[in-house]
Every structure is written in C-alpha cells, then in structure tokens.
Design a protein that fits this description.
Strand order of the largest sheet: 1-3-4-2-5
Distance between the termini: 49 Å
Strand content: 5-15%
Number of domains: 2
Structural class: alpha+beta
Helix content: 55-70%
Order of helices and strands: HHHHHHHHHHHHHHHHEEHEEHE
Number of helices: 18
Largest sheet: 5 strands, antiparallel
Shape: globular
Radius of gyration: 22 Å
Length: 430
C-alpha cells in the first residue's frame, strides 16, 4: 500500500509540473492544425532532392503527430507525390517532437533538452532522407483519382468564419488530440511513477554514469516499443533519476517515438526493405551521436539541474494554478478515454465532423460498399483513410468509423482502386 501511494504521489508531482505546459502545447497544436493548410506540406515535397528532404524535416518537427498518426499521414504525402527521401525525412522528424512535446520537455527536463531535442530530430531526419535519395532509385507511386481533388477540411477552412475555425482548433486540441495520445500520456506518467517509486536503485547500478551501457540499454527496448513524444518525457526523467546518463535519456526521447513494431512493418511493406534499413540506421545513428555529444561535450549541469528541481517540487505543495491545470487536464483525459469518445466519423459530404452522420440519398446509378480497414488507431488514421478513399475516381461519399474500422463508400468506383488507395497509406483492407 505504501508503494502504491508513493507511485500515485510521483504521478501527481509529474502531472502538476507538466499540465500547464501540456495545455498550452495542445492549444498551439490545434491552432496549427486549423489555420495551416495541408497544401503547405504537399506542394513542396515532390522533388527527389535535398530541398524536399529539408522542408519535410522542417515541416515535421513542429507537427503534433504521434507515432501511429504519422504513418498514414506520411504515406498519404507519398501517395500525393512526395519523394521517398522527403517521406522518410517526415517519418523520422515528426513523431520525435511537436509543439506540444517541446513545451512539455521544457517543463520537466529544462531548456537544454527542449532545444536539443528538435535539433536532433531535424538533423536525423535530413540524414535519413538524404541517404534514401542517394541510395534508392526514384519510384513515384501512382495517384488514385485527381491530384487536384480538394480536401473538404481545406475547403471548410476557406469558408468558415474565424469563430468557426477557432472552435475547430479547440476541438482538435482538447478532444481529438486527447483521444489520440491521452492513453499513452497516462501510461507514460504511470511508468515514470513506477520507475521512480517502486524500482530499486540497485537495478540500474551497472548503468550509472556509463554512457555506452545506458545507450545500449535504452535502445534495446525503445526501438520496438510504442512511445509518444509527450509520454516519453516523464519516463526519460525517471530513468535519469535512477542514474542513467542524460544522453541515454535523449535516446529514449528520440528512438522511442520515432519507431515501433507497427511503423517498421508498414514502412517495409509500403516503401521497401532498403528504405526501412536506412530509416532504422538513421534513427539509431542519430540517437547515439547526440547522446555521446550530450554526455561528453556539454556541461552535465545543463541536464541534471531539472533533477534537483523535481526534488524541490516533491517537498513543496504545488500552486493553485498548477492544480487548476491538472484538474482540467484530468477532466479532458477522462472525456477522451471514456467509452462514449472516438465516435468521430470523417464524411466526404459533411460540412463538419459530427458524432453521427446520415448516409446521403443516392442516385440509382450509384452503389454502396463497406470495407473493413485494419490498422487505424487514432483520428489522424481515420482522416487519412477518408482522404485516400475520397480521391478515388467515382467516389461520391465516404464515411469512416474509427470505432469499428469500417468505411462506407458510395459511388461508381473500382474496388481495386479503393484497395490500392487504402494500402498505399499503410493499412490493410477487406
């Protein structure tokens, strides 16, 4: 019972430290999503050159996409004409950071980590994308439907008043993003609490102060494991408190979100084995290089100071503002994780997302088919599946349900085209 209380106390302290910054980060992410058109990304990534790789990394660093959401998004960019190098660059940079996780990193781990983390993601992404362009021969994928088919979300942004767009930003930030990463954030906080309160220091004796052992230990479980960029922060801090080096903590922040078993399988299927090898090599090489740089080239007090701050926070009561933010965060997480959530459908004919969408009246020459899509785990996945299906020639309306993985498609289309469009972004279908 004492151990359980200690774990809950550690989770409470971490949540109080992170909640104000998390709420700010989610809000900024929502504003970016609603007011920045997706064409900003797709129009500049088609060339098989360094510029497209550079821009893909630059676009990917601030985007608040988790490890599961970035896969269909990146495959969607590839399907719309992005080069392989730009796609890999986007795949590496985007899940490692985001405007929300950068702010949260500052809240728990300090300014040096918050600066180095996006720089490491950016340079590692450029390395991976450049290697793909040099080694892989250009092989653009065919486009299904018209490449100029507008996205309903983009059209809506052009016509909605500012108040409507602002409402959409809040909904994306505090409903959809909470649904997508809320579970992983809670898991990360709980794991950090367990490591800090329940795992004996003797377990990490072999790694204390040893950069090489710490790096290899962290790489061993972070490459295949699913960790979101925000949820990895408290775990990295907990490992540092147990004696692992700051460089090893950075390895977790980089390799954990950037790769997992699901992303490895999908990249191998869609982009090929050689591209997968370059992708993994770039992540591992970048993580090790920056870890060694932190541990051997930079002052250690830059990265260990937050540990002392955490000890002080444990000894003092949090302020009313932190408690208020924590309460709000808990309410938002409860709403996101409750059974009634995840009922957003993505309808090609709807003016905005609704909890329940009515099937449109069809002309007699059209037909409706249902497809079972496997691999969707978040709202980004469902939105990208909807967009891919909507681009197929002859499709009149699309309804994608994240709950049961079903897509209802109406029109006069080819089933093979639907299958190819869905598989091109990394999902399987029947």
């Amino acid at each position: 019972m004492n151990v359980l209380l200690d774990i809950l106390k550690e989770v409470w302290v971490l949540t109080n430290e992170m909640s104000p910054y998390l709420l700010l980060g989610f809000l900024l992410a929502g504003l970016m999503h609603e007011f920045l058109p997706s064409t900003l990304y797709t129009n500049h990534l088609g060339k098989n050159n360094f510029r497209s790789v550079f821009l893909a990394a630059l676009f990917g660093v601030p985007l608040p996409l988790c490890s599961c959401g970035v896969i269909p998004t990146a495959m969607g960019l590839r399907r719309e004409g992005a080069s392989k190098g730009a796609t890999v660059s986007f795949l590496i940079a985007t899940p490692q950071t985001g405007v929300d996780s950068i702010i949260a990193t500052y809240s728990l781990m300090g300014l040096p980590f918050a600066i180095i983390r996006p720089i490491a993601a950016f340079l590692t992404a450029i390395l991976g994308g450049t290697l793909v362009n040099k080694i892989e021969a250009p092989s653009p994928l065919p486009l299904w439907g018209s490449a100029s088919t507008p996205n309903n979300q983009e059209e809506k942004n052009k016509t909605l008043p500012f108040g409507g767009s602002l409402k959409g930003a809040f909904r994306y930030a505090f409903v959809e993003m909470m649904e997508d990463i809320g579970k992983w954030l809670v898991i990360g906080l709980v794991i950090a609490g367990i490591i800090t309160a329940a795992v004996p220091d003797s377990w990490f004796t072999a790694f204390q102060g040893n950069t090489l052992y710490s790096i290899l230990f962290v790489l061993l479980f972070s490459i295949p494991m699913y960790l979101c960029a925000t949820g990895s922060i408290p775990i990295a801090l907990a490992l540092m408190m147990k004696g692992l080096t700051p460089g090893a903590a950075l390895v977790l922040l980089m390799a954990g979100p950037a790769s997992n078993v699901a992303s490895i399988l999908i990249i191998n299927k869609v982009l090929g084995r050689k591209t997968l090898a370059i992708y993994l090599f770039s992540i591992i090489a970048g993580a090790i290089t920056f870890a060694l740089g932190i541990d051997y080239l930079l002052p250690s007090e830059w990265f260990t100071a937050p540990l002392a701050n955490m000890q002080e926070c444990c000894a003092h009561q949090p302020g009313w503002f932190s408690i208020l933010c924590t309460v709000l965060m808990v309410l938002l997480l409860l709403n996101a994780l409750s059974p009634h959530s995840h009922h957003h459908c993505h309808c090609h004919d709807c003016e905005e997302e609704k909890s329940h969408c009515e099937t449109p009246i069809l002309h007699s020459s059209l037909f409706t088919l249902h497809f079972k899509i496997s691999g969707m785990t978040c709202n980004h996945c469902a939105a990208n599946a909807q967009k891919a299906i909507a681009s197929v020639e002859g499709v009149e309306s699309v309804t994608v349900s994240l709950d049961d993985g079903m897509a209802q498609v109406s029109g006069n289309f080819s089933e093979d085209d639907i299958r190819q469009a869905i598989e091109s972004i990394g999902f399987s279908v029947k």
